[in-house]
Design a protein that fits this description.
The chain is mainly beta. About 0% of the residues lie in helices and about 50% in strands.
Length: about 260
């Protein structure tokens, strides 16, 4: 068996792993493991019918989310490895066929009650108790793209959605444009839209500030700029001087002192 992913529990006392036989092989057995970080002792090991590619731990450390090579999703109890439920497969109707393909990113809500998955042109919501699909948040009318990053406010009431998209109204016409939305995490209602192109962004814990780097600045001779928006009214507060650099930022985050 090969190990493909590892993640620590929030308290740092346990390491969870996902793996299996070589990806793409005919023998598709997989496993999820849990080890004690102090002693290295194996706490539990659970078999799966397919190789597992990723493992994620919920914010409070109670639930484990695993994804298989064939995109089957399962939730387990972190203490025992017992299967909690399998996430219901998305069966797209003709109207929803364009949203079938998952982009790869999955997120727990801060209260652990739901899992959000990024699909083409929207976000699928699952209930973590039953595994049932609860809702699908489409991108606003006229916008096309793939959500690839979700970030929650500290109180869990808001979620920032970063979308890599297409600039034209012709669906699936790729272009280096993107945008950012601030949404109500319960209802999915769009609270603010920050037109792009912005492909890298970060949300402050209080959801009162959003910072972004725009694709339009991505060239070695021109460099890039950082912009800072006020999250509540959604107005531009500051824009950094142009930074000339051969290296481009790939992630952003707010420090506790408010710096970026």
């Amino acid at each position: 068996a090969q190990l493909y992913d590892l993640q620590f529990s929030p308290d740092g006392k346990t390491i969870y792993g996902a793996g299996g036989e070589s990806l793409g092989s005919t023998d598709q057995h997989g496993w999820a493991w849990a080890w004690d970080t102090e002693s290295g002792r194996l706490r539990w090991k659970k078999p799966f019918l397919e190789s597992l590619c990723t493992v994620q731990v919920s914010p409070r450390g109670a639930i484990l989310l695993t994804r298989s090579e064939k995109w089957n999703l399962a939730l387990q109890e972190t203490t025992t490895g017992k299967l909690r439920c399998r996430l219901e497969e998305r069966r797209a109707s003709n109207e929803e066929s364009r949203a079938r393909n998952i982009a790869g990113n999955l997120y727990f809500t801060p209260d652990e009650k739901r899992v959000m998955g990024c699909f083409t042109e929207g976000i699928q919501i699952w209930n973590t108790r039953t595994g049932k699909r609860e809702a699908f948040w489409w991108l606003p009318k006229g916008d096309y793209g793939v959500p690839h990053n979700l970030e929650f406010s500290a109180d869990g009431t808001k979620v920032m959605v970063t979308v890599s998209g297409w600039s034209s109204k012709k669906r699936h016409d790729p272009h280096d444009s993107a945008c950012v939305y601030l949404r109500d995490s319960k209802t999915g209602r769009v609270l603010r839209k920050f037109p792009g192109p912005y492909s890298i962004s970060a949300l402050s814990p209080a959801a009162d500030k959003i910072t972004m780097v725009g694709d339009r600045y991505y060239s070695s001779d021109a460099g890039y700029r950082l912009v800072l928006y006020s999250g509540r009214p959604g107005i531009l507060k500051r824009e950094s001087p142009r930074v000339a650099s051969d290296f481009l930022p790939v992630s952003l985050d707010f420090r506790p002192d408010g710096n970026i």
